[in-house]
Amino acid sequence: MAAVRTSSEVALNRVAIVAVLLITLIFLAPIYWIASTAFKPRNLATTIPPTVLFQPEISPFVKLFTKRSQLRTPPTPEEYAAAPWWERLVFDGGEKVVRDGKGNVQPSGYPSRFMNSLIVAITSTILAVGMGTFTAYGFSRFRIKGEADLLFFILSTRMLPPVVVAIPMFLMYRAVGLNDTHWGLIILYTAFNLSFSVWLMKGFIDEIPKEYEEAALVDGYTRMQAFFKVVLPEAATGIAATAVFCFITAWNEYAFALIMTNRRAQTAPPFIPSQVGSGLPDWTVIAAGTVLFLLPVAIFTFLLRNHLLRGMSFGAIRK
Amino acid sequence: MATAVMTRLDPSTRAAAHGWSDLTIRNLFIIPTILFLIVFNIFPLIYSLGYSFTDFRASTNAPANFVGLQNYRELLNDDFIWRNFAITAQYVIVSVTGQVLVGFGMAMLLNRDIPLKGLLTTLLLLPMMLSMAVVGLFWKLLYDPSFGIINYALGLGTFEWLSNPNMALYAVALTDIWMWSPFVMLLSLAGLSAVPKHLYEAAAIDRAGPLYTFFRITLPLVAPILMIAIIFRTMEAFKTFDLAYILTSQPTTEVISIRLYKMAFQEWQTGRSCALAYIVLIMVLAITNIYVKYLNKVKER
Questions:
Q1: Local structure of residue B158 (DSSP, 8 states)
Q2: Do residue B2 and residue A143 have CB atoms under 8 angstroms apart?
């Protein structure tokens, strides 16, 4: 940083600080608003003017996970007293929790979509980072004819518009029965993230001095042993950062999921917006679903903060 | 792919003499990935190239008839498709210009002694990590004409953002600017912090004005990284689907990806949509080519 010298520079710096704080507040306001809506009572979610101060509630999250129906008649005092605390919250909102014949609470569509998102994102991340690390090592350490062209080919697969790839994939999946399955999405997300993973991991592995492996080879390790025992531990941070990026990409993906899944394997991104549908949507429940879905990414962004630049530039720019 | 063993290690050393040969390991490490990408990215594209010359409809059992270049000819002569491209171009220009101005401006502000700079930067980067589909969804709540916080905060009354055909595209672009300005900021910051301080000191000694310093020192040195940000965002904005699809259903926001999606999965004009997909694909690959050139240029510095 340039040393602050004159009084005009001091003043300029103060203006910049105020401006930065203001911009940060404006940028965070939409996120704050959706998060606060997730804790509002339903009648305060869509008021005119918007409600800023309110008593936070947990009821949107209870509603998010349960299947509910409109209450025709209010619950009897006995029913109300016998209900657990979370069921009373649903009663208070003029609805009741749907139970099956045995009295088990029926879940909403949300938990299964969230689970699908987890299964698809985690599996595809493991595959993409695993294959990507091996391939990146190959490109980093061995001479390959047409290396630049191959790397361009690998990156270009990442740049293909999802809808363009989705049309033939939809037809092929329909022919082999992979539509609306976890594996169908896992394959697509692995292919999509693989190129990213190769490019990013190549940057990380390029930074590990090859003298490390040479020393190990001289000590009698085979090339494979040197790779597993010397290179992989050195690349651990890079692997973790790459994995988080791949996870976030797969977690957030919408177009493929919209086209390739409809119920069984549907992930959260196409499911959450479909809840707005017709009629008066309950924005508190939608906000609760949104917040739970965005939370893992927010945490990961914080953990990744020192690698964001690198990841976003496909490993081209390092700090 | 190379067939000769060419490793950076001397093959005659004891080290390379046992275990798998480097050639085996290299092939084992690289070929599965290349094959995987060929099977799941290139093969489908060849498959759809074939369909693009037919009148195939995936919704019926009727066999595909070869129609030659008819799909391409019709698409390129279709005024509605050109309108979709024009909307896309307008969207790209508005949204990328906005991101560059806001993002670069933020980087200029942050490129000085600011307390809690690391924390503020991380917080600012949050929007671009979120799911576009879910962001689109909750911006619907923000844009709502009657109870939306945006109209309230700006005192716009019941101004229509998303259901106004003239405004909707700008509303989508505004959300995109909110999400992706931090990306331009992040790359610009990297460029700005790499400008050698002595250049500024020399400029100060020469009594150069702030404008002169900015246009003659700062901008030229940041330009290559800024170009990466601009090309990447242009490519992404050109492909945009999620945000516009979720935020509005106005005909004035029907960017080319949405047209393609509707043609393929709602109208089931499979053959025709494959042809349109190819036209889009060629455009994207052209931009990708420029992008990779810049990536390599910056990498070599």
A1: T
A2: yes
Is the CB of A254 less than 8 angstroms away from the CB of B109? no
Q: Which amino acid is at B1?
A: M
Task: Determine the distance in angstroms separating the CA of B65 from the nearest CA of chain A, rounded to an integer.
Answer: 17
- Give the domain extent around B23: 18-51
CB A168 within 8 A of CB B45: yes
Domain extent listing, chain A: 7-37, 67-97, 111-312
**Helix, strand, coil share (%) of chain B residues, nearest 5:** 75, 0, 25
The terminus-to-terminus CA distance of chain B in angstroms comes to 28
Chain A contact set for B260 (CB, 8 A) = 161, 163-164, 167
Domain A111-312 has CATH 1.10.3720.10: yes
Are the C-beta atoms of A70 and A109 separated by less than 8 Å? no
Are A60 and A288 within 8 A, CB to CB? yes
Give the ipTM of the model, two decimals please.
0.90
Both structure tokens of B119: 């924390």
pLDDT digits (tens, 9 = 90+) for B132-152: 999 999 999 999 998 899 999
pLDDT at res. B295: 85
**Any A CB within 8 A of B35 CB:** no
Q: Are residues B94 and B216 in the same domain?
A: yes
pLDDT band, residue A64 (cuts 50/70/90): very high
Q: Could you tell me which of B172, B154, B189 has the C-alpha nearest to residue B247?
A: B172
* Nearest-CB residue to B129 (from A159, A221, A297): A297
Flag whether pLDDT at B241 surpasses 50.
Answer: yes
Are both B25 and B169 inside the same structural domain? no
Tell me the pLDDT band of B168, cut-offs 50, 70 and 90. very high
What is the mean predicted confidence (pLDDT) over A120-129? 97
- Domain count for chain B: 2
- Whether residues A294 and B296 touch (CB distance < 8 A) is answered with no
Of A49-63, A266-280, B23-37, B208-222, the one with minimum mean pLDDT is: A266-280
| B252 CA: distance to closest CA in chain A (Å) | 20
Predicted pLDDT of residue B76: 94
B33 and B158 fall within a common domain: no
